[in-house]
Design brief:
The structure is a single chain. The protein is α/β, with parallel strands linked by helices. It has two domains: 196 residues, Rossmann fold, CATH 3.40.50.150; 97 residues, DNA Methylase, Chain A, domain 2. Helices cover 28% and strands 16% of the residues. It contains eight helices and nine strands. It has a seven-stranded mixed β-sheet. Helix 1 crosses helix 8. The two termini are 16 Å apart.
Length: 307
C-alpha cells in the first residue's frame, strides 16, 4: 500500500510503516534538521516545506495517509489552547488534503493520526469529539486508543493517542495487543560515552532536587523503564522529569543514540545533527515499534477483508 506522510519529523511513524511493507511515496515536514535526518535514512526523501504553503495537487494519490499532527496545543506541557492555537488548526489542513484527494477521485482508504494523551480530554472532550465528527463526516470509521510504548518492546513509558480510520465501514479493527516487556533502560545503554554526558557536581545538586517553591516531585534515577522522552530534554530537566543513569559510579544523562533506541530506532539509523537537534527529533518522534505494530495490524485486516 502507498503511504503519504505528514509531519514526518525524523521518521518514526514512517519507518514503522516502511518496516511493515508499505511504500512511502511522499513525505513532508517543515523542520529542515528533521528532514535532513529523514532523508539520510528513508528511501523516499521528504519535502521540507510549511504544509500550509503546499500545492495540494502535488501530493500524489495514496492508499494510506499518516501523521502525528502537532501536539503542543493539546499537551499538558504546553498551554492547552487546542484549536485556538494555530498549530492546532493543522488538523483541518489534514482534512483539506483528504478532501482534495477525494475531489480527484482517490481518497485515502486509511488514515492514521497520532497525538498526546491529553487530546482525548482536552476542552472536556469537545476537541476529540470534533475530530471524530470531521472524520465521520467524510465517511471514515474511527478507532482510537491510548497506547504505551512500553507495551510494544521499548523500555519507555510513553502514552499516545492513535486514531486508525477506515473508509471501508465493513472493516472491524482491533489495535495490536500489548506484549510483555523484555528489556530495561539499563539494557539499551551504551558501554562507553563521551565525558560531556556526565554531570558535574555543581549541576548534580539541581538535577537531583525534588523541586522548588510550590512545585514538588520526587527525583529518581536509574529507572528500569524510562520516563517519556521530550523535545526539550537537551535542556536537562530535573530527575523528577527527565532520565539519568549511573555509570562507573557517576551520574549522566542519556546520549542521543540511547534516546533513539528508546524510540525503537535501529542502530543503523543515522543522524548528523547537533545533540540539541537529535534530542528534539527523538523526543518528538513516534515510537517505531508502536508504529510497526499498528501498520502490521492494519495491513493484515485490509488483506483479510479483501480475500
Amino acid at each position: 500500500m502507498r503511504v503519504a506522510a505528514l509531519f514526518s519529523g525524523c521518521g518514526g511513524l514512517d519507518l514503522g510503516f516502511e518496516k511493515a511493507g508499505y511504500e512511502i511515496i511522499w513525505a513532508n515536514d517543515y523542520d529542515k534538521y528533521a528532514v535532513n535526518t529523514y532523508n539520510l535514512n528513508m528511501k523516499t526523501p521528504a519535502i521540507c516545506a510549511d504544509i500550509n504553503n503546499l500545492n495540494l495537487n502535488e501530493i500524489p494519490p495514496h492508499d494510506v495517509l499518516i501523521g502525528g499532527f502537532p501536539c503542543q496545543p493539546f499537551s499538558m506541557m504546553g498551554h492547552e489552547e487546542g484549536f485556538n492555537d494555530s498549530r492546532g488548526t493543522l488538523f483541518f489542513r489534514v482534512m483539506e488534503i483528504v478532501d482534495n484527494q477525494k475531489k480527484r477521485g482517490c481518497p485515502p482508504q486509511v488514515i492514521v493520526l497520532e497525538n498526546v494523551r491529553n487530546l482525548m480530554t482536552h476542552d472536556k472532550g469537545r476537541t476529540f469529539s470534533r475530530i471524530n465528527e470531521e472524520l465521520n463526516g467524510r465517511g471514515y470509521k474511527v478507532y482510537a486508543k491510548l497506547l504505551n510504548s512500553a507495551d510494544y518492546g521499548v523500555p519507555q513509558t510513553r502514552n499516545r493517542v492513535f486514531m486508525v480510520c477506515f473508509l471501508d465501514s465493513k472493516i472491524a479493527y482491533e489495535f495490536p495487543a500489548a506484549m510483555p516487556l523484555k528489556t530495561t533502560l539499563q539494557d539499551i545503554l551504551e558501554k562507553k560515552v563521551d565525558e560531556k554526558y556526565f554531570l558535574s557536581e555543581k549541576i548534580k545538586k539541581t538535577i537531583l532536587s525534588d523541586g522548588s517553591g510550590n512545585y514538588f516531585a520526587k527525583s529518581e534515577t536509574d529507572l528500569r523503564i524510562a520516563r517519556p522522552l521530550t523535545a526539550t530534554m537537551g535542556k536537562m530537566h530535573r530527575a523528577c522529569q527527565d532520565n539519568y543513569v549511573t555509570q562507573n559510579g557517576r551520574l549522566r544523562r542519556l546520549t542521543p543514540r540511547e534516546c533513539a533506541r528508546l524510540q525503537g530506532f535501529p542502530d543503523t539509523f543515522k543522524f548528523e545533527v547537533s545533540d540539541a537537534q537529535a534530542y528534539k527529533q527523538f523526543g518528538n518522534a513516534v515510537t517505531v515499534s508502536v508504529s510497526y505494530a499498528i501498520a502490521k495490524s492494519i495491513k493484515e485486516k485490509v488483506e483479510s477483508n479483501n480475500d
